[in-house]
Choline/ethanolamine transporter FLVCR1 (Strigops habroptila), 515 residues
Amino acid sequence: MVEDGGEEEAEGDSGEMPAATAAPPLQRCNGFLPGKEAEDGGRAGGGERAEAEAMLSAAGGRVETRLSRRRLAVLAVFSCYSLLNAFQWIQYSILSNVFAVFYGVSFTQIDWLSMVYMVAYVPLILPATWLLDTRGLRLTALLGAGLNGLGAWLKCGSLAPGRYPLTLAAQAVCAVAQVFILGLPSRIASVWFGPTEVSTACAVAVLGNQLGTAVGFLLPPVLVPNTPNDIDLMAHNISIMFYGTAIVSTLLFFLTGVVFEEKPKYPPSHSQAVLQTVPPEDYSYKQSIVNLFRNIPFVLLLISYGIMTGAFYSVSTLLNQMIVTHYEGEEVNAGRIGLTLVVAGMVGSIICGLWLDYTKTYKQTTLIVYILSFIGMLVFTFTLDLGYLTVVFVTGGVLGFFMTGYLPLGFEFAVEITYPESEGTSSGLLNASAQIFGIVFTLVQGKLTTDYNPRAGNLFLCAWIFVGIILTALIKSDLRRHNVNSGIMNLDVKAVPVESPVEPENTALKIQSAL
């Protein structure tokens, strides 16, 4: 496999595949409707199908795959505007005491500036994934970057006490932008990157969001120190943060328009080459959703991913309150602990991504990381009130390494066990589950922390993470995408619902290794 270098492109790797004319058109089980090929009398389904069949039948039935150099720019720009969106999510929570004084509202109302991200995601994820599957990657990316910038500029109008409703509305716009961002890492990785780098690319894309959370923990306490006796100075400091965010987000929106394309000229892997043979008019989003929810391993992963990621959202939102409860006046260190948690998680994400690309041990790695996250949460819970901030830094780092490092594992494991379903749809459902659990966990843990102490809230999360371990252990590992890329799987790629009796043998797709 080689990189696409424009007019001086080298010849790409090839993998043998039966010529398109040797069998009826392919059917795909990711929501494509049965019978449309028969209605066409075996004819190819449109211009894109003809182009795909020509590619598959070229050079004696060998499919050409290439890596585009543009893929690195796409990944970099996406990671940057995902970073900014995550920064805007956490910038209020890490300064909850500052913004509560500035806007004259309660801590619960400040918590809602974080939870609005979770609330907006749940009802909007299905329309967003439908848009991604039917209108494509470029439009979805532009919407995410554009709404991110719009929300940032609206926040600049809320720089006065009493304008909490406006800053909540601005944060809601950023929350809508998030819907068009969180589901893209696995789609970008699959569409633009080859099989030996796809898990690492997904981890890097997720890392951008994690880095934004890290910057959100670190930078706001530095830019906006707590000055309760000087509201004008507080407003000035907040304006620096808001205007800086708005300017950078606008620049990233224009870069997204320049860099993003729908897909590379040549598919980067055999699994992508297979998916490109299906005409878009045969796609049924409803059938895709139905197929996913009939996939029991995916449903188990959906719940376990929601538990783990929801717990991370809750800890991130309430970290300032937990730290200040035991270490009064340590707002800056609370931000640094959050930074430690997320940076350690970024390292964990990259290590896990590299490990998956090397070993393909998806279930084993996911289960081990889940267990270690549970242990890390227990240690963090029982050392939080010892009176030593250094210990909290260490335990927070260990917790973050495993808990945040789990995020790309869930995305990639889902793509493997649901192939050839749309990566955007499976990722979107995982994120929706995380938002639902995040809302519930944040409300319950916040109530327990306020009424009792942080330990009670953390033990609540520990109990749920233990449930997630059990669910993860029950997942059946069926690495369908990996098997197709390896040329070792005869995949019956069906477009029919599960109960359909029509499963002709000649729709079996035999991917043969070119080695």
Q: What stands out?
A: The longest strand covers residues 62-68. The domain at 285-486 is CATH 1.20.1250.20 (Growth Hormone; Chain: A;).
